[in-house]
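Before relying on records like the one below, remember that each one covers exactly one chain. Contacts with other chains, cofactors or solvent are not represented anywhere in the record.
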Amino acid sequence: MSEPQRLFVGGEWVEPDGGHYEVVDPATEAVVGLAPEASPEQARAACAAAREAFGPWSRTAPQERAEILARAARAIRSGMGPYTELAVAETGATTATARAMQVGVAAARFRRYARVEPAQWAVEPQINEAGPMGPAAVLGALAVRQPVGVVACVTSYNNPWANPAGKIAPALAMGNTVVVKPAPQDPLSVYRMAEALQAAGVPPGVVNVVSGRSVAVGEAVVGSPDVDMVSFTGSTAVGRRIAEVCGRDMKRTLMELGGKGAALVFDDADVDAAVAGIGTTFSFYSGQICTAPTRVLAQRGVYDRLVRRLAGYAGRLPVGDPREPGTVVGPVISAAHRDRVESYVELGRKEGAVVVTGGERPPQERGFYVAPTLLADCSNDMRVCREEIFGPVVTVVPFDDEDEGVALAGDSDYGLIDYVWSADVARAFRVARRLRTGGVGVNTVGRNMEAPFGGFRKSGVGRDVGVYALHAYSEVQSIVWPG
């Protein structure tokens, strides 16, 4: 355990008013480090620092901003070893996942936005007849992307590297300044990111990080009059509250919220490929990921075979210490979350689902482990099929034909990412177009990291990733002149 962490405000490392709290390793229950508990006043001071820094940073040449982001990417890559160890300790992710999908993706995101992209484009000239607005004229126009201002980045616990980087990098590239409020469970990684940015030459106040377990810290950031936009990743319930606060002052929002991804598996599907894709729910972050295909909709001709294969797949996954090379399934983030996931499994039993595999706590003496669990013979009205469990739990619901499958997929409060498995590519794409969801994977759970990301319904508002993130963290200004 290192020295107690301090806050990062206005380019300075500041002692927290609220003292420190312990960050616990989900695999061992040992103390990883001491995280700072900011006061609401310090949170507001961070927002004020970002406001003061906004003017100069927004006027900094885009190439200079890009060079700083490139240096930050290199700094993160150079610290891959210790950063990965910290990510494993804070989150319980396996070493391979922490290295590639947390720290590695964070570096890639800073590198992605370390290039200058066009921020303005011509609009077709317009011929105006003489009238009350003046004589006849040809009017030229230019559309210009301008930074939003101060962006509050409220990030999730399941990926304390890639998630903040996906907000900070495009926001800075567009000339915004940021105040980051990391999840209380694993904020130490975000402070390491702030150190990398400081070493890369980010001016004081451009990046600020304030953490705390108290809800008051996040509320102070979101409600600050110095904040122009809130970018949030987390639960729908918290997202709704943030939207209410932002709505009062017309603050811009970008929200990536919950998911209950439907995976439609048709009779002609490659079952092995479908099982491998759906099986990532059991292993990847131990199911703590909003994009997971947690709600399997299986056509009846393939239903029994799919359930049997999924059960076999889940039962073979090694559960244990995420630092061990052979481990595939690590712990969930906390004891409280383990209890929540287990309560859903028990609820599924009471609702009439059949626990095909899992359902019992693994034998590890310490750590917050949940066995990969498959619930079959479900119906779409069960709570385990409608509510986000956020753990290594998959439900399976049968359907008869394409129309019923699409209807079941759409019968959800969520709409983040759905999946379709079928050997008939034309049908797969036809079904994908019918799904009311922000993204669809056709015969894959892979992501194209330039494709827009976001959800329908209660899964969120707005789109980011790739160039869409530059759109999200900017406002469009039109400039008109006589030709």
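Residues 262-449 form a domain with the Aldehyde Dehydrogenase; Chain A, domain 2 fold (CATH 3.40.309.10).
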